[in-house]
Amino acid sequence: MNFIYTTLLLVCLSICLSAGLVVADEDNAEFKVKAGYLYNFTKFVTWPKDDSTTFNICILGNDPFGELIDPIEKRTAFGLPIKLYRINTISNTQRCHIVYIGSGTREQIAQKGALVIRDMGNTLSVGEGEAFAEGLGMIGFVSREGRIKLQVNLKNLQQSGLTVSAKLLEVAEIVGGNGHD
């Protein structure tokens, strides 16, 4: 009888563990796609000239990418090596060309009243969820039908001094501005 219970317990445990691995693989796939988007934004967004010696991509607060995004530092953007920074405060975004603001981080900072995305100058703000781009963000990742989609707030982008390619706008949902400004 003990053998049967032990066998059932092992089967249940292996099912639970394999279900956890599937969820982990789905999370990895999601963040690989998002990391790819962060890199590809460098091909479809133009920043004003500055005196940077690196092109800086920052992750504000909790890092959902982990080491999945680290290979991005082997790439270049605008002839500059890409440097990845993990930062904890909005005040550290001055050196960022792109800043990724995760949903949990955005909520924590907003609750403290410290998040003023419009004051980030020429930094492309990328975040999570429907409310991000519809609010003060520029590009938001949204999940629809099991796929990562983009929302672009043209008004916020235009106010930042950044220029976005029509090719990027073709694959995104526009949530602010009308494109004729």
Helices and strands in order:
Layout: H1 2-44, E1 45-46, E2 55-60, E3 76-77, E4 80-87, E5 98-101, H2 103-112, E6 124-128, H3 130-134, E7 139-144, E8 147-153, H4 154-160, E9 163-164, H5 166-170, E10 172-176
Parallel strand pairs: 2-4, 2-5, 5-6, 6-7, 8-10
Antiparallel strand pairs: 1-9, 3-4, 7-8
Give an overview of the whole structure:
β6 (124-128), α3 (130-134) and β7 form a beta-alpha-beta unit. The protein is built from five helices and ten strands, in the order αβββββαβαββαβαβ. The protein has helices at 2-44, 103-112, 130-134, 154-160, 166-170; strands at residues 45-46, 55-60, 76-77, 80-87, 98-101, 124-128, 139-144, 147-153, 163-164, 172-176. It has a single domain (2-176), classed as Rossmann fold (3-Layer(aba) Sandwich). Mean pLDDT is 78; it is low at 2-24 and 111-115. The protein is of the alpha/beta class.
Features of this protein?
181 residues; Rossmann fold; two-stranded antiparallel sheet; 5 helices; 39% helix; disordered N terminus
